[in-house]
Amino acid sequence: MFNRKAPFPRGSVMSVAGSDSGGGAGIQADLKTVTLLGSYGSSVLTALTAQNTRGVSNIHGVPAEFVAEQLTAVLSDIPVDVIKTGMLFSSQIIDAVASAIESNRNCLLVLDPVMLAKGGAALIDREAVTFLKLRLLPLAYLITPNIPEAERLSGIDIIDEDGMQQAARAIHRMGSRNVLIKGGHLGDNNSVDILFDGSAFIRYPAQRIHSKNTHGTGCTFASAIATFLAQGEPLQIAVAKAKQFITEAIKTAQPIGKGHGPVNHYI
Ligand code: PLP
């Protein structure tokens, strides 16, 4: 009767992120990805955005104490393999998330350092980026910056794969165990992502897909990696499978709404 991919979820991912009322990015993208790939998803909300495919019209932050209460409620009851973070909004919220991770060392942290929405709205306070580098980045198993985020974190201008490698080394030195820099913003016909584990670089090449329906790409990609990790895949395989998933999700995206439609999670 129901077309379920798997009868029982395998692995558990907790997403700590903002809500996108349009359903394309943020916590909504994360839960769709985790669920449709067959794991259990829980969610801790950091902010509400009033948003559709044309942009963010307003943001309402969740008080850090209430973020901490959500973290405690989930982590004291539900087994979590991977904590995936997206929009974190403020230094106070980053501190609450870091404290929860310090008390739950068995969970892997996949940190998507979300900074800007496509339309330019800031999804994190300016000064909170510095705090994120100092407080949360050293706790990460994997960080997944795009090019502008990697430039902001590393202070390095990236114009090619060499620059991506330099930035990956710099961000690895800040304490993340693994660094995945996504090359989609380099603007040529390929979209090469680079994974650095502190000793070797692995390239994940893909042909660029020209589409305006790319809303939620970063959230979906990081959530897919988190899900495959929660299911026990080694990092290199988790990234390869997630890259395949996001490529297909962009290729098959439908034009929902009048602006940038969401990627297709229903693959
Ligand atoms: N998180 C929230 C709540 C957002 O609204 C957005 C973008 O608008 C993002 C994350 C980042 O989206 P993307 O996956 O397109 O980078």
Characterise this structure.
By secondary structure, the protein is an alpha/beta fold. The protein has one domain (12-251): UDP-N-acetylmuramoyl-L-alanine:D-glutamate ligase. Helix content is 37%, strand content 19%. The protein contains eight helices and nine strands. It has helices at 26-36, 64-75, 91-102, 126-136, 147-154, 161-173, 217-230, 235-251; strands spanning 12-20, 40-52, 55-61, 82-85, 108-111, 142-143, 178-181, 193-196, 201-204. It has a nine-stranded mixed sheet, with helices on both faces. A hairpin with a 2-residue loop joins strand 2 (40-52) and strand 3 (55-61). Helix 2 packs parallel to helix 3 (91-102), helix 3 packs parallel to helix 4 and helix 7 (217-230) packs antiparallel against helix 8. The protein starts with 11 loop residues before the first strand and ends in a 16-residue tail after the last helix. The site of pyridoxal-5'-phosphate has 18 residues, from strand 1, strand 2 and helix 7.
Bound molecules: pyridoxal-5'-phosphate
The backbone outline, from C-alpha atoms, is globular
Instruction: Tally the helices.
Output: 8
Low-confidence stretches: none
Distance between the termini: 19 Å
CATH class bucket: Alpha Beta
Q: Under CATH, the topology is which? A: UDP-N-acetylmuramoyl-L-alanine:D-glutamate ligase
Structural class of the secondary elements? alpha/beta
CATH homologous superfamily - what is it?
Ribokinase
Spatial order of the strands in the main sheet?
Answer: 3-2-1-4-5-6-7-8-9
- The number of distinct structural domains comes to 1
Give the topology string: H per helix, E per strand: EHEEHEHEHEHHEEEHH
Function: Condenses 4-methyl-5-(beta-hydroxyethyl)thiazole monophosphate (THZ-P) and 2-methyl-4-amino-5-hydroxymethyl pyrimidine pyrophosphate (HMP-PP) to form thiamine monophosphate (TMP).
EC number: 2.5.1.3
Organism: Geoanaerobacter pelophilus
Protein name: Thiamine-phosphate synthase
